[in-house]
């Protein structure tokens, strides 16, 4: 990625101007995260207002990219400080215009929206709390409301919010101005890491020329990627709920812990309802256990005729605040399920689970990484058509709206944090580690109650052969386990088994390999030998179950070659078949999953190995199947048929779309 240089002074100064704020913030962010981050849901005590749509937007092309701060653009409407364009939210800003400078822009961009706050939210003088919440914004965000800074957040892919009650209550009836400054600069200490490189050779590059280098293989889309909402709670409110579940055949226990903010004097009552609305258990107080006789367990898709069963935990809080009674109600969906790992198996509800699924990206034409309901539902339909029971959120946490559907449909998730491309030695230092710990805290805080999430992945393909990786992953994985003892932890490795310093600390070995592609390109015949050796070496060394967490080949749809040649649809299919024959032997032993790289073609930086992006999708970026999709579909349904104890749900007809309706009910 290249851009016009930000400032006309020495390189070092330019680097500082651009990166300073992000780097300083990375240092500050080392504190543990505080409070809950419940998904905003309406209830009798909570209202919600979506702020999606058109926002005003300006990229700061000034020398140094810092005009917005120097001129304090947040103090008045953005249109008064210069030209603005319309920008959709949620969406990445990169592909919205025809301007290549904006597509490849690095630095600060500014968003603004003026919103009318409902009068009733402001009437009763601070007994209503008004919260401004961002589902995610990439990468570093500073938010002002009516010119007052309300929150600063480092990192894309995870939510952040601010209580803005006092600010909006100061000026009822007038438009409330929300201004966001967003910086997509990556440093060696951000997640993912990156670096700015200034090209000072004036015979080869124009003055002040720089590029942002990254070591990951997807386009560094930026913008307000997920929904922005305003929601209310009473001033005494349910801040967080943590639920864990255990079960035996005839009874399940739902253990809960609730935190309330705003008063010490409150009471809590809980009722757990089934899908018919019948109360199956009740409780009270901030922690305890609910006993559920004859529970309906949460089962993965294709493992049960009724996958994704969720109860609804209604938490009711009553309190007095300054003599005024307050009530808050929050309803949390709860799936009852257990997860265990043995040396050869991954057990969900005590039964062996085989991951037959995909790796995805949040990526599409025009909107980039912006949330898009039509795309989300289409993807779930394709996943179920494929017979996929799982995916990994490669290489960052996905939208909460996606995670909700995983819970609902029973799609099992390996939940990955944005620890991708950690290759530079300096990215293994304390500063990076501290930030990584915080990101895991934020991720677990957000997704801890999701039954679909069965394992955390703390990184993808780090340089785990470097000696500092040992301490780094030991600390990171121990921290993750301390935060959530109920789930196994992994990271995804492409390092040789003999020199991987992180692998001793994981519960499941996740390994990526591209035999016949990046290694021995064009030589499909090497796959059986090399893949067998890969599995045997890892198992011999660690005696832990193994997931083939990536394998794949690029294919250009419509490009044909027989005998199969690289980039043709035939080659992608042939590669799959070679891999599958080894999986079929090893899944009888300790291989517990296979996740194709990738579900769909996706955008990357430009480069000699990328043809308008990465083409390893089994679907195109527009979600049309390549030939490989049919190979995988046949295989996944076959595996599901073999292992399922419930024949009717997997009795699909190969090409019928109406069968999908049956499958999902
Ligand atoms: C990998 C990476 C993934 C890439 C993929 C590829 O190992 O984990 O992010 O996109 O290979 O296609 O090169």
Helix percentage range: 10-25%
Largest sheet: 8 strands, parallel, barrel
Q: Could you report the average pLDDT, rounded to the nearest whole number?
A: 92
Query: What is the CA-CA span between the terminal residues?
Result: 46 Å
Report low-confidence residues grouped into runs of 5 or more. Answer: 1-18, 20-30, 647-665
Q: What is the strand arrangement across the widest sheet?
A: 26-27-28-29-30-31-32-33
What coarse outline follows from CA principal-axis ratios?
globular
Short recap of the structure:
By secondary structure, the protein is of the alpha+beta class.
What can you see in these coordinates?
Its main location: other. Residues 1-31 form the signal peptide. 23% of the residues lie in helices and 29% in strands. The two termini are 46 Å apart. The strands form 8 sheets. Strands 26-27-28-29-30-31-32-33 form an 8-stranded parallel beta barrel. Strands 4-3-5-11-8-9 form a 6-stranded antiparallel sheet, covered by helices on one side. Strands 2-15-6-10 form a 4-stranded antiparallel sheet. The chain is built from 13 helices and 33 strands. With 665 residues, the protein is of the alpha+beta class. α7 (400-409) links the parallel β27 (390-392) and β28 (412-416). α10 (527-542) runs parallel beside α11.
């Amino acid at each position: 990625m290249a851009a016009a240089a930000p400032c006309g002074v020495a390189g070092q100064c330019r680097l500082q101007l651009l990166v300073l704020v992000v780097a300083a913030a990375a240092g500050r962010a080392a504190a543990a995260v505080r409070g809950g981050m419940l998904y905003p849901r309406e209830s009798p005590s909570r209202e919600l207002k979506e702020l999606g749509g058109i926002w005003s937007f300006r990229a700061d092309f000034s020398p140094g990219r810092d005009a917005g701060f120097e001129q304090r653009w947040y103090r008045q409407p953005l249109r008064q400080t210069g030209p603005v364009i319309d920008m959709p939210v949620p969406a990445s800003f990169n592909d919205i215009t025809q301007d290549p400078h904006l597509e490849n822009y690095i630095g600060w961009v500014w968003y603004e929206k003026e919103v009318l706050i409902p009068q009733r939210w402001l009437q009763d003088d601070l007994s209503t709390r008004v919260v401004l919440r961002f589902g995610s914004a990439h990468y570093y965000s500073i938010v002002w409301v009516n010119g007052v800074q309300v929150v600063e957040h480092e990192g894309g892919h995870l939510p952040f919010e601010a209580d803005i009650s006092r600010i909006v209550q100061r000026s009822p009836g007038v438009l409330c101005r929300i201004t966001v400054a967003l910086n997509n600069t990556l440093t060696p200490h951000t997640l993912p890491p990156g670096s700015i490189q200034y090209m000072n050779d004036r015979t080869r590059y124009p003055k002040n020329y720089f590029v942002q280098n990254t070591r990951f293989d997807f386009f560094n889309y930026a913008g307000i990627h997920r929904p922005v909402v305003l929601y209310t709670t009473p001033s005494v409110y349910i801040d967080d709920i943590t639920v864990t579940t255990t079960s035996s055949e005839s009874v399940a226990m739902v253990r809960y812990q609730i935190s309330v903010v705003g008063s010490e004097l409150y009471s809590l009552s809980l009722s757990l309802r089934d899908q018919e609305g019948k109360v199956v258990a009740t409780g009270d107080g901030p922690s305890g256990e609910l006993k559920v006789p004859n529970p309906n367990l949460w089962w993965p898709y294709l493992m049960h005729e009724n996958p994704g069963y969720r109860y609804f935990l209604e938490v009711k809080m009553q309190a007095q605040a300054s003599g005024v009674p307050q009530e808050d109600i929050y309803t949390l969906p709860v799936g009852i399920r257990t997860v265990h790992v043995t040396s050869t198996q991954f057990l969900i509800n005590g039964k062996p689970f085989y991951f037959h699924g995909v790796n995805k990206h949040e990526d599409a034409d025009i909107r980039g990484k912006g949330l898009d309901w039509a795309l989300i539902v289409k993807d779930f339909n394709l996943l179920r058509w494929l017979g996929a029971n799982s995916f990994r959120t490669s290489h960052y946490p996905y939208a909460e709206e996606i995670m909700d559907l995983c819970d609902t449909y029973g799609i099992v998730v390996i939940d990955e944090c944005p620890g991708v491309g950690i290759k530079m030695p300096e990215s293994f230092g304390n500063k990076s580690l501290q930030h990584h710990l915080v990101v895991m805290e934020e991720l677990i805080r957000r997704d801890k109650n999701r039954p679909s999430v069965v394992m955390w992945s703390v990184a993808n393909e780090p340089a785990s052969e470097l000696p500092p990786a040992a301490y780094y992953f030991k600390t990171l994985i121990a921290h993750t386990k301390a935060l959530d003892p109920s789930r196994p932890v992994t990271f995804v490795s492409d390092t040789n088994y003999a020199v991987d310093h992180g692998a001793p600390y994981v519960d499941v070995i996740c390994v990526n390999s591209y035999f016949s592609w990046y290694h021995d390109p064009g030589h499909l015949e090497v796959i059986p030998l090399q893949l067998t050796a890969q599995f045997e070496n890892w198992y011999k060394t660690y005696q832990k179950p193994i997931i083939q967490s990536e394998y794949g080949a690029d294919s250009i749809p419509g490009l044909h070659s027989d005998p199969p040649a690289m980039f043709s649809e035939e080659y992608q299919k042939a590669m799959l078949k070679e891999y599958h024959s080894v999986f079929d032997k090893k899944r009888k032993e300790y291989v517990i999953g296979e996740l194709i790289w990738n579900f769909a073609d996706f955008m990357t930086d430009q480069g000699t190995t990328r043809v308008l992006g990465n083409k390893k999708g089994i679907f195109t970026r527009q979600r049309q199947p390549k030939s490989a999709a049919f190979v995988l579909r046949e295989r996944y349904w076959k595996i599901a048929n073999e292992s399922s104890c419930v024949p009717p749900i997997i009795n699909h007809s190969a090409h019928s779309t109406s069968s999908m309706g049956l499958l999902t009910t």
